[in-house]
Amino acid sequence: MPEVIDNKTIFSLLEVSRSIQKTIAERYKSLYWIKAEMNKLNHYSHSGHCYPELVEKREGKVVAEMRSILWKADYHRINDQFRSLLNEPLRDGITILFQAAISYDPLYGFSLKIVDIDPTFVLGELEREKRESIRKLQTEGIFSANRNLRFPRLPKRLAIISVETSKGLSDFFKIIDRNPWKYKFEYTLFPALLQGDKSVPSIIRQLANIAEKTEEFDTVAIIRGGGGDVGLSSYNNYQLAKAIAIFPIPVITGIGHSTNETVSEMVAHQNAITPSELADFLIQKFHQFAIPVDEVQNRIIQASKRLFEQEERLLTQFSQSLSWNAKTVLTTQQHKLTTLMNHLQLFSMQLLKDRQTAINNIQRLMQLADPKQLLKKGFSITKINGHAITQDTAVKAGDEIETTLYEGTVRSKVTR
């Protein structure tokens, strides 16, 4: 009972709490279906109970927040339904439609006791978000922007967004690193979260990092292991899909085994169901480049062989023709040379004969001009001091002179 002190009715905290408890129990007797975002599941493995944090957001701001209780038995039942229908466990960061009792406890305060969660509603929410993201991207005219980029003929340099411990990434590396054709890929890993609410800003942040050095890469690959529709819900996010759609180089994805294509996959240049399939796609691109090159190489080799064979035949023909022509020319020239030698011999003999006749004539002339011949005929030569006298003025009385005869010499003295 309340106390009265100084004309004031005073209630204890327990009395107020019990009054609120009674009022709420009388007012909220039924179970209610409530929609909220489960910010955190808060599952405690030692007890098996969950204490989900529920929020409602409007324009990104939290406008309501409440704690709740999900007992162990109910959690296991609901979690099994999620795994069966969605191929994903109950987890943080999804909008749920749940059935709960509203209660108040004097010690633990106000809470919602969750007894059931509708997994089909989660699928509906995912589909609604997906349709809204598609509508926004199409309205902005960027839905096909990345897909319209020219894909590199040889996608050799890869910027990979993934988790280092991802099994899907490991499968991807095994295929591209151990391909039997020895194709060489260059890749840089940009680690990011790939699931849950934090995956969206994490992937966008790494896309921004890659955008600063796009000249170093041919394409961006977002790689994630398998998962159901709930686990892939972040890939329907409008902001993430927009970042992929407007990225300046082609983005390719291999983000899971789900047959329900996400918006991020739709706007990407190329998407594959699994990381392994994505690796096969890249290797096929190398094939498409290498096979024509090999064919051209073979054609060049064959054409070169044919050209060499043709040139060899022509060379043989030319050699044979040259040999025949050389023999013909040699024979002709040899005949000409023989004729020329004969002519030269005849000409030389006649020239020698003519020259001999000329020499003989000169000899006769020289014999006729020989002073002895003149002296023999009675002529003589008179000299003074070794010089022939041709005029009488060359001597005077008293000079000694010498007269040469055909036979002998006479020395005289001039008297007049």
TrEMBL record:
One GO cellular-component annotation of the UniProt record comes to:
exodeoxyribonuclease VII complex
The record places domain OB-fold nucleic acid binding at 12-117
- Could you list this entry's UniProt keywords, alphabetically sorted: Cytoplasm, Exonuclease, Hydrolase, Nuclease
**Domain Exonuclease VII large subunit C-terminal: start-end pairs:** 143-363
Q: What terms describe the molecular function in GO for this protein?
A: exodeoxyribonuclease VII activity; nucleic acid binding
**Principal location listed in the UniProt entry:** cytoplasm
Read off the InterPro entries from this record: Exonuc_VII_L, Exonuc_VII_lsu_C, OB-fold_nuc-bd_dom
The protein's location, in the record's own words, is: Cytoplasm
- One of the GO biological process terms: DNA catabolic process
EC number in record: 3.1.11.6
Keyword Protease on this protein? no
Q: What class of enzyme is it?
A: hydrolase
Please write the reaction equations for the catalytic activity of this protein: Exonucleolytic cleavage in either 5'- to 3'- or 3'- to 5'-direction to yield nucleoside 5'-phosphates
The UniProt similarity line reads: Belongs to the XseA family.
Q: What is this protein called?
A: Exodeoxyribonuclease 7 large subunit
- Origin species: Sphingobacterium gobiense
Q: Which gene encodes it?
A: xseA
